[in-house]
Each structure stands twice: as structure tokens, then as C-alpha cells.
Write a structure and sequence with these properties.
Blueprint lengths: L4 E2 L9 H12 L16 H17 L6 E6 L2 H13 L5 E6 L2 H10 L4 E7 L19 E7 L1 E2 L4 E2 L9 E5 L16 E5 L10 E6 H4 L12 H6 L9 H17 L1 H21 L3 E3 L11 E6 L2 H13 L2 E2 L10 E4 L6 H17 L1
Parallel strand pairs: 1-13, 3-4, 3-5, 5-8, 8-9
Antiparallel strand pairs: 2-10, 6-7, 9-10, 11-12, 12-14
Helix pairs in contact: 1-7, 2-7, 3-4, 8-10
This protein binds 4'-deoxy-4'-aminopyridoxal-5'-phosphate.
The site of 4'-deoxy-4'-aminopyridoxal-5'-phosphate has 12 residues, from helix 3.
């Protein structure tokens, strides 16, 4: 079977080493005599997986003991619900920065649970850049929510100023893409299917002082406090999904965050340079400091040219480059597992396409 070059936004490409190790565990997990797909969630073997994964998250994110770490189900969107459920008390306001589809949806979900305000938005420019910071927040702000990387629109916050409220971040599409000061955040979360493994699990990291301030009684399954107390096994956990995340964390540590960041920079630089030089392709985000290193979004001069380039890519076994249905054009996702060589192949094809016109 021919191998594809996979630029999908998530579920996304995984490193070969991780897939091979996972395949072995599907046959037999260590000396348990069971497949990882059969491993009980309350077994010692799974507790060991959880503990090692937490240790690696703590180490890679340079967190101290002020933070709790849990694996949850329901992907990114369930976090859109759980954050306000747990941390937006009556009488307070949740502030959201609206940088596009996911950021907006997170705010919409929060409005089910309490008062929600959009502290800044770049909707008027179709989210082609990041909104101005600083912004004014209401006095009774419970937290400020941001989306560190905007998967659909291709923008990314590279530096964040201090804020005087709890900062909560959706890091689904750029977690562990390089070093960052995670202690700026009272909480961050990420759906796993990009830099952290496969779909069906989400990581949540919560500072203890925020955790103690739970806003209301919520059912145990949806309570961060309860999930922390039960060490991520309130119910039948996604054992294989957490194991895949552990393999990704081990791979990330082995590669080193500095090397990962350097490679991510090279990949994005190569692709943006090709787009900027081109007379056919146009970048969605023009301000260099707002550009995402994870999701590069661009269009071609006409829908016909877009179709033709898409077909050329398909013939060369390149998949996953179509833009999201709301933006169209192209979106090339360059998560940690994508090698520079894949980007070079794509860039070569863009140049070949342009010279054939
Ligand atoms: N947040 C971001 C930044 C995302 O990119 C996505 C999905 N691509 C989500 C949230 C939603 O994740 P899920 O599909 O797991 O609910």
C-alpha cells in the first residue's frame, strides 16, 4: 500500500516509531498477556501509564506541584463545556478572546452556564490576524479564555502579556510545539489528536488554586475536582488513547522541545516563503508575527487553480491540504510529527505547478 504524505489537521500524522510501538502493544501489552485494547482501566498497568504520562507532562511543560493533570474524554469540545461549568460562578463573567471558529464556539458554550463577554475579536477581518491586546476586562471576570493556535484560520499567539485574571487556554493545536511558559496559565487543555496522539482523549492541566474554586455542583463525570481525585478513571477510561498519548510524550521528550521548535520553525518558514514568493498562492495571514507555525492557510488565484493544484497533490499522494469548509483554499498542518522533507516535497510541487501555468 502506497504511503501518503499526511497534512491533515487532526486526527493528524503520527511518528512511525509511535505507530510501531502502538501496534506491538495492540498485539500484547508488556507481560500482561493482554492487548492494550483489552487492558482494564483499573489495572496497575494502566495506573502506571497514567503516572508516567503525568510525570512527562509535568516535565515537558515545566510545571511544579501547583498543577494537577488529568486525562478526559470528549475531545476539545467537552472542555468548552467543563471550563465554564466548573469555573464560572453566578455573578461573574467569563471573558473570551474570539480568534476564530474554535475560540468562538468555546464562548458560545460558556454562555450556557453564565455571563460571557467577548473581550477582543478579529471577526471584522475574517480572523486573518490576532486582535489587539491589551483589552479591558469586566471587574468580575472569573477567567480569560484564549485559543493559543487557531487551527482553521492559521493564526497563533506567540507571546502573551500578563493578565490579572485566571488565564485559561485551549492549546489543542499547538501544545508541546515548543517551549512555553505554562505557568502563565491557571489552566490549559488540549484535544490529543494533533501533537498528543489520537482522538478520544483530552489533556487538562489545572492549577490547584483554581481547582479549589469550583463554581457549582456538577455531576462527578464533569467535575475537574472529582476527575483529579479519581486520577482520570471516574469511568472506563480510553486506555488505548492515553497509552498513545504516553508514546507521543516519550517521543517528544526524546526528540527534545528545543529541536521540535527549531524544526517547526524551519517547516513553517519554508512554506510561508514559498507562498510569499508565489504569484499564484496567497497567504491568509499576512502579518508574520500572527502566523501559525502549525496550520498554514492559503488560497490560489482562482477556484480553478485551487482544484488543479489539489488534483496534482492527490496524484502525488499528498492528502489533508484542503482548507476547512468555512475558509476554503488550503490548510497545511505542520504538527510535530511532520518531517521537513514532506514540506519540501509540497513546496517543490507548488513551484512545479506555478511554472506549468
Ligand atoms: N480546539 C481547537 C483549537 C481545535 O483545533 C479543535 C478541533 N480541531 C477543537 C478545539 C475541537 O476538538 P474536538 O473535535 O476534539 O472536540
Amino acid at each position: 500500500m502506497e504511503r501518503k504524505i499526511n497534512f491533515n489537521p487532526g486526527p493528524a500524522a503520527l511518528p512511525d516509531e509511535v505507530k510501531e510501538e502502538f501496534a506491538l502493544a495492540v498485539r500484547a501489552y508488556k507481560n500482561t498477556g493482554l492487548s492494550i485494547l483489552e487492558l482494564p482501566h483499573r489495572s496497575t498497568a494502566f495506573t502506571d501509564i497514567i503516572e508516567e504520562s503525568k510525570t512527562l507532562v509535568r516535565e515537558l511543560c515545566a510545571l511544579n506541584d501547583d498543577y494537577e493533570i488529568v486525562w478526559l474524554q470528549g475531545g476539545g469540545r467537552l472542555q468548552f463545556c467543563m471550563v465554564p461549568m466548573n469555573f464560572l460562578p453566578d455573578g461573574s463573567t467569563a471573558a473570551y478572546i474570539d480568534t476564530g471558529h474554535w475560540a468562538h464556539e468555546a464562548a458560545e458554550y460558556a454562555a450556557y452556564y453564565g455571563k460571557c463577554t467577548i473581550a477582543a475579536t478579529s471577526a471584522s477581518v475574517q480572523y486573518s490576524k490576532l486582535p489587539q491586546w491589551p483589552m479591558t476586562l469586566p471587574d468580575n471576570t472569573a477567567y480569560l479564555h484564549i485559543t493559543t493556535n487557531n487551527t482553521i484560520y492559521g493564526t497563533q499567539w506567540h507571546n502573551l502579556p500578563e493578565v490579572n485574571t485566571h488565564l485559561i487556554a485551549d492549546m489543542s493545536s499547538d501544545i508541546l510545539s515548543g517551549k512555553r511558559d505554562c505557568t502563565q496559565y491557571a489552566m490549559f487543555y488540549a484535544a490529543a489528536q494533533k501533537n498528543l496522539g489520537i482522538a478520544g482523549v483530552a489533556l487538562a492541566v489545572i492549577r490547584k488554586d483554581l481547582l479549589e474554586k469550583t463554581a457549582r455542583q456538577v455531576p462527578p463525570m464533569l467535575s475537574y475536582q472529582h476527575q483529579v481525585k479519581q486520577n482520570s478513571v471516574v469511568n472506563t477510561a480510553n486506555v488505548a488513547g492515553v497509552y498513545a498519548a504516553l508514546l507521543m510524550l516519550r517521543w517528544t521528550k526524546q526528540k527534545g522541545l528545543d529541536n521540535i521548535a527549531a524544526e517547526n520553525n524551519l517547516k513553517a518558514k519554508a512554506l510561508y516563503a514559498a507562498i510569499d514568493k508565489s504569484k499564484v498562492f496567497n497567504a491568509r495571514v499576512t502579518e508574520a508575527t500572527h502566523r501559525s507555525l502549525m496550520n498554514v492557510c492559503f488560497t490560489a488565484e482562482s477556484p480553478e487553480a485551487e482544484d488543479a493544484f489539489m488534483q496534482l497533490c492527490a496524484r502525488q499522494s499528498i492528502v489533508g491540504i484542503e482548507g476547512h469548509r468555512v475558509t476554503r483554499g488550503f490548510r497545511v498542518s505542520l504538527y510535530n510529527a511532520i518531517p521537513l522533507s514532506s514540506v519540501e516535497t509540497l513546496v517543490g510541487l507548488m513551484q512545479e505547478f506555478e511554472s506549468s501555468l
